[in-house]
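Q: What would this complex look like in 3D?
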Amino acid sequence: MARVLRLSAFRLAIAYILLSVVVLGVLTVPLRYAWRQNIEDARNELIKEDAQSLSDILERHGIEALAAVIDARVARQRVGNLIYSLSNAKSIRLAGNLSALPRGALETPGIFEWAVEVNGRPVEAMLMHASLPGGYDLLVGRDTARFARVEAFFVYSLAGAGGVILLVAVIGGLAIRRSLLAELHGINQTASAIVRGDLSRRLPVSGGTDELETLAQTLNRMLDQIEHLVQGVRNVSNAIAHDLRTPLAELRARLEMLLVTKPSAEETRLEIESAVADVDRVIGIFNALLRLAQIETGARRSGFVQLDLAEVACEAVDFYQPVAELRGIALTCTCDPGIVIAGDTLLLSQAIGNLIDNALKYVQKNGAIDVGAVICGDTVRVTVADNGPGIPSDEMPKVSERFYRGDQSRGTPGVGLGLSLVAAVATLHRGGLELTDNRPGLRATLVLSRRG
Amino acid sequence: MKVLLVEDNESVAGFVRKGLSEAGHVVDHANNGRDGMFLAASESYDGIIMDRMLPGGIDGLGIIGALRKSGNTTPILILSALSDVDERIRGLQSGGDDYLVKPFAFGELLARLDALVRRSHATDTETTLALDDLSLDLLSRKVTRGGKTLNLKPREFKLLEYLMRHANQVVTRTMLLENVWDYHFDPQTNVVDVHISRLRQQVDGGAERPLLKTIRNAGYMLTADG
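A: Here is my prediction, written as structure tokens for the whole assembly.
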């Protein structure tokens, strides 16, 4: 991962540099082209005019005068870029500063660049040949060194500008890479730590609003959710292991005792009965888990029908009524009649039953439990309120987790799946389970969507 | 009675077969769908215990469907490891009469089989159910014991009616939950026992001979014997 990030930052820097070069090129290439065209045209024009004026001198004043003019010009020049050569039909030099006639120069029309010798030193020159009347050959030229300097200056400044841009680009690219890497490094390190198993790590967040910050915040929220889920799975596995291990351990001990002690027939029968009861407990836990999984996948929505919730709730109350009476608890049903929703009768019976069953477990003698149902906008709220000991507020969010058993519930029967099932049923009905303090006691509210 | 057991798992089959034989029933066993289909169609049974998933080309629901199509009305108890309510509905829709999820207690199996077989003999046209000096009038919904009228709540009436319809048979807690309350789940508590003990107070309270008996490890029985 770090490698790829580094590579991508490097690529970013390279792309930045290339972009700068392209921009520079786009700016300078036409400029240089125009400049060059202009300079060369002007130079060629100069050479042509020069040749023309010399040719005029020959016509008007004769060859002697022309040779004198050329020699005078050569002698007079200061910069030293004028090149002339005048020769007769026999190629004998009459005037000029060109040491020797370049081979083939007299046969080539137009203006060309030639390597020649002027007064014994080699120069690059632009030469034009003109055939004059009387068989004379005139070569007019300009030393390009002077232009080459200007051109070199142009190229150097261009290169300099390019260099500066390149340098800025490289530094900028490196800086971008550095800052990007520095930000990504934190993310990378955290991610690596999480991969190694430390799920509590979070990405560094400074509270800004830029893209990386937003990304980090989103990732942190995702990590929260993952940690919660992993924690849930871990809890469930631990709880299953614990809750199944206890009856299995008892079962094993019982059977092994039978093997070792060889008790009387009656005693053996009793032990086997207890062993079967142990197995039934294990099967009960499995069934509850399967049922929960089934509800949570939402597959049961196909079984939804229109039902009267008040009827379902009152039947559940009716079912538990004898138990309540036996324990001296007042169990009442105060449901508005005719609350029709789309739902699963069986699951809702079981959910409401579980809530009543829970309340019955904790409420003391002479306590009271009330089951009520009211329509509340788009939802129906089924409330099971008791005046028992309630749930400490710090345990509230945990009680509907699988196998969670509060400190007070240790030693009471049950496997700790009751409220999980209620919550799952509520979710299936597009609602939720709310647990609040009834001062005193617990108020469990099953919120269900009326539309199903 | 004569029972056909179609079950491919040897250990479950052995356990059921032995239990039924000990309860005094004659058991034929088929360990695949083909043999099961053949036996069910060619022999006459009082009841059939049918596993859902079977080797031999035809599964339990297939056999049941074929039997029902050919006009065979033998009561059938489906055994299955599939515990979904939907699966249960599918099993009953195919023509099964009752559905028992594996793993099960043998007492449960026996009680359900008993209930199925006797129901197929009973007539539903009676308007009064009677056992010893206990009588229940289905039309006036009046219950008397030894001439004295018992004041039962609707659900208690339904519970007693079910017990009387299955008099002299073991009735399990699950059977009561399913048939009296229509609750196809395990409420995990002894609520049924509490209902029974309240009913017992009403029915047997003050009477010389108790009729409503608890059968250890199985359930309850309404009987005048013993």
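A: To summarize the key features: DSSP finds eight helices and twelve strands in chain A. Chain A touches chain B at residues 273, 276, 279-280, 283-284, 287-288, 290-291, 294, 299-300, 302-303, 315, 318-320, 322-323, 326, 346, 349-350, 353, 357, 413-415, 418 (CB under 8 Å).
Q: Very helpful, thank you.
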